[in-house]
Fold Arginine biosynthesis bifunctional protein ArgJ.
Amino acid sequence: MTTTSPKGFRAAGVAAGLKASGGLDVAVVLNDGPRYDAAGVFTSNRVQAAPVLWSREVVRHGQVRAVVLNSGGANACTGAAGFQDTHATAEHTAAALGVGAAEVAVCSTGLIGERLPMPALLTGVTEALEKAETDGGASAAEAIMTTDSRPKNVAIAANGFTVGGMAKGAGMLAPGLATMLVVLTTDAVADASTVDTVLREACRLTFDRLDSDGCMSTNDTVLLLANGASGVAPSTKELAAAVTAACEDLAAQLQSDAEGSTKDIAIAVTNAATEADAVEVGRAVARSNLVKTAFFGNDPNWGRILSAIGTTRAAFDPDGIDVAINGVPICVGGAAGADRSTVDLSGRAVDVTIDLHAGDAAATIRTNDLSLAYVHENSAYST
Amino acid sequence: MTTTSPKGFRAAGVAAGLKASGGLDVAVVLNDGPRYDAAGVFTSNRVQAAPVLWSREVVRHGQVRAVVLNSGGANACTGAAGFQDTHATAEHTAAALGVGAAEVAVCSTGLIGERLPMPALLTGVTEALEKAETDGGASAAEAIMTTDSRPKNVAIAANGFTVGGMAKGAGMLAPGLATMLVVLTTDAVADASTVDTVLREACRLTFDRLDSDGCMSTNDTVLLLANGASGVAPSTKELAAAVTAACEDLAAQLQSDAEGSTKDIAIAVTNAATEADAVEVGRAVARSNLVKTAFFGNDPNWGRILSAIGTTRAAFDPDGIDVAINGVPICVGGAAGADRSTVDLSGRAVDVTIDLHAGDAAATIRTNDLSLAYVHENSAYST
């Protein structure tokens, strides 16, 4: 159930001293072939970490032999020196593996604005490369955790091939993408162009619709490595289904582990004029601090939902919006519906359905509540 | 120092039983002329409360004799019945004053989605009209408070004329406009078109640049009533300066009373390519929950500021951004500058300066931190 579930991948996580806690903080995922097709999707933030700038170039060639990841530092806003650190990490890994540095992707996560302790990192990489095993996915997933309370792994068994994956992310979760690192692996046979198509579609429908706190990261990276070791060449549709299922599973794990959260909120926008409208409305509601604090307080405050919908450009008639919370039609035609006391918000899962009555498109955005623990945790992060 | 500081205005606030606390909850501001020129600026939220829909039509004619305001209920998302309630309030007031209902603006604030208790409200309006006095501004300002901890009043003495005003607002503070009601009065002589021009410019530079929690209200209303009682006809520029000064003062009062806030944060964006770029960047930073929680924790986490800047479309080179916090150049050229321990964040005022090095435009956005008290207060609002 990890990145090493598909055939032909090895991984490891080691403690290199980057984290003050002494926990695992450097990971590698190695592709043993026979194919090395790969693709990546990166943050749309214009302030991009050095490893994002580097790995974007790597996947441009469509071939990845190894991924090196570290927690304990984002290597973002570190200037030319920070970029050289990433480059040196790739060179170091490539030399050990006897491959080209341009086939080594690098991912970092942690505090923005500080240089990485390079000697410790490179020593850790050497150790991780030595330890990499075909059942090493679990330790790799542990090594990329920051404020995550648990590692996040997945494996989807498909028709003759497997998709595995790991993710880290617990805050700065917002589209384009969430603050997260994800490495997906598959032993399916697929060329780099197909891998790219499949990964983009999967991200669009899963990670891009997770918006925990509206904050976009400088380091987001999702990589998919396909080595063909199963000998099975699925159709694009079949591969896309398995990869999307893996991403959906990891996205749900990210959501349920979001910093300080007490609710997993799914905002389903239905009968929108366009899918873009549905996404815009869902995202506006997901980003309203007043909506999020209300849910933290178990308060089905639908007025705040309508207020958030009203900030969008989506097609709707304000007097024609229905909102249901956990199945209770609390707002009908833009005004009060069922009594708010009939909504049960005691559980962690909250389902909000917004019917815009403006068409037949739909989308679901996933978010969390805004809790006292979120504020507490994020007001003391770098200190 | 209130709405009744300019000549020719009367006001009052009374307790009509709309607030559970028994406090003042209905206010009137009456214009005794000789002129009745007026203008209004309203929320850009597409979900608009009944009193906004009504008052927007009233000011379209440029003549306002009276403003009726209530706390204890927003009369938003209340459908056709809610609009009739607003209409009835205006009719009731107009009948008592012997004027047309189309000259009576109405403002409401409080919980969204519930009907107002009309008998109590109309009884309160009658009482407020009877009590309205030339020194009644203070009680009117008190009657429009919701979660405000104190009333907000202002008076600016200009060259032969005066601008007075009152505001309420403590949450849902975001552009277009803040969640607030503002009534400004002046005894200057100015036609309705000039009043409109002056008010829009003042709002653009003050209330529209206050973004406490990124949440936009359904009820925002800013009204300016000019009665010419001073006999002085200032130039448009002179009147604009006084009105903007009054708005600036009220905006600062709104910011300093924002729900649960412990910091007043001014984000000055300098050397932007355009003023729109400066506003976009300032607003993105002001809306980042991670920036806001960091300031609550007295943490000068400039990486989160850069991460927020990176989400905008403004012109800048990521490696060319400087950020100073309370005068300390903590980020230089997109990377670490002065040591973060040298930034003193112990006070309430925080000055963030972002130099984009992309032009010569500038704008300042004002916001607050995101505190435990904000979450606490907003998770228990309607219950």
